[in-house]
Specification:
310 residues, alpha/beta, Rossmann fold, 2 domains, 4-stranded parallel beta sheet, 10 helices, 17% strand, globular, disordered C terminus
């Protein structure tokens, strides 16, 4: 059987979909999976072993969950025609339209705006990946949510690109990665907050890399990569990731990178993904951020001290 998944969402949602897709593939080993996605996220799927062919939508350029729901509703007519064209060319047995936050009415899948989802429906009691797995009817025999690790495969060429960029920027040894901007205005940090954070990180005497051009600071290295996977390779090499709830934060989580995430828009609703190395702070609080950044350093010092004494 050949299946086309339609998944027109951002970096974070794509990474949260990877466990559901992996579980589905485990139960349907002989099936061929293709995906229709955004240009923004195509690299995630081009390097995913469970996906055969990646199609990029001609009609949606940015994730619809960033607020353009009315526009997205009308675009779906065009998307339907796009899907029909692909179906004719490749003769799919099934098309699965996957929407993480949605409800079905009269056979239609309708996306739910994030604000409505958080404040009225209170749907953040479970990880979005759990919902995706249940939508595909997979993972019922597995632990929840232990099996839901996100997958991100970085090609060697992007690792080399990252090494070259770091070398050009004279980055040797340990460094921090900072990310403070996003499509959604209620997630990104203000100019003053960004400056406070840069100063805090720089005071640790470790180089700070910002993944996009922001207000220039002489103590900071600004790197703007040409592709998503090179950014991921830089995050993989860092000793600490500090940022907002956006695509790079999900990349850091998928790479099991020690992180401090400021989830301003969600006010604690995302705490279901908090782990020992992945700290979530539900507002910009420089004291809390400082505590979580320094926590691991004290822990490592104590381990070293215990080893030396013994």
């Amino acid at each position: 059987m050949r299946i086309l998944f339609v998944f027109l969402h951002g970096i974070g949602d794509c990474l949260m979909f990877t466990p559901a897709l992996r579980m589905y593939k485990e139960e349907h080993k002989s099936d061929i999976f293709d995906i229709l996605t955004l240009d923004l996220t195509k690299e995630i799927w081009q390097n995913n072993p469970n996906i055969n062919t990646v199609f990029v939508s001609k009609f949606i350029k940015s994730p619809p969950n960033h607020g353009n729901y009315l526009k997205y509703f009308f675009q779906r007519i065009k998307i339907k025609n796009e899907i029909n064209e692909i179906k004719k060319r490749f003769n799919y047995n099934r098309v699965e339209y996957v929407v993480p936050q949605s409800f079905r009415i009269f056979g239609l899948t309708i996306p739910i705006p994030g604000l409505l989802n958080r404040t009225i429906l209170k749907k953040f009691d479970k990880h979005e990946t759990v919902k995706l797995c249940r939508r595909l009817n997979v993972g019922k025999d597995k632990k929840w949510p232990d099996a839901f690790f996100k997958e991100l495969n970085i090609p060697s060429r992007n690792i080399k690109n990252a090494e070259s960029l770091l070398k050009k920027s004279n980055v040797n040894g340990k460094f921090y990665v900072l990310h403070t901007t996003a499509f959604a205005r209620n997630r990104k940090l203000t100019k003053d907050e960004s400056i406070q954070l840069i100063n805090l990180l720089y005071n640790n005497k470790i180089k700070v890399i910002v993944l996009q051009k922001e207000d220039q600071n002489k103590d900071t290295i600004y790197i703007k990569t040409q592709d998503l996977m090179t950014s991921a390779a830089i995050i993989k090499k860092c000793s600490l990731f500090v940022g907002i709830d956006s695509g790079p934060a999900h990349i850091a989580e998928a790479l099991k990178k020690r992180s401090v995430i400021i989830s301003k828009a969600f006010k604690g609703s995302l705490r279901y993904i908090e782990t020992k190395s992945f700290k979530l702070i539900d507002k910009f609080d420089i004291a809390l951020i400082k505590k979580d950044i320094n926590e691991k350093r004290w822990y490592l010092f104590l381990l070293f001290l215990m080893h030396y004494i013994s």
